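Notes from the 1:1 (GR / supervisor)

We went over the backlog. Supervisor wanted to see one worked example end to end before approving the batch request, so GR pasted a single chain during the call. The sequence is below; no edits were made to it. Supervisor asked that the structure be written out right there so they could see what the output format looks like.
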Amino acid sequence: MPEDDKQERRKRMVSVEKKIIDLTKDDSRVAVVGTVLSIDEESLVFTIEDPSGQLTILTPTEDLIKGLEVGGVARVIGMVLPYEEGLELRAEVVQDFSSLNPDLFKALHDLM
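Structure output shown during the call:
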């Protein structure tokens, strides 16, 4: 198999579902679910909150925040980025979870 084909088939690390409060600088690829608190379309940044805390999400393209609404629920898969004042997440995938039943979300969060 040519070397180029091997590189294309390289798999990403699996993301680990986490509560925001449980994120650490040692985490790499994670998935978090939370309510969208704010969206800055100019700087491609938004903030989410789950029952355990808040997290700033950085997006590389405007496509990832298209369709998000303040008050909606989003699942974000991405890489944890430590910085002096805490952690941020560089989004790779943003999914609209607004149709998620709030009671089921709370139950899932409690199980985690």
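Supervisor's comment: The chain has one domain: 13-111.
Batch request approved.
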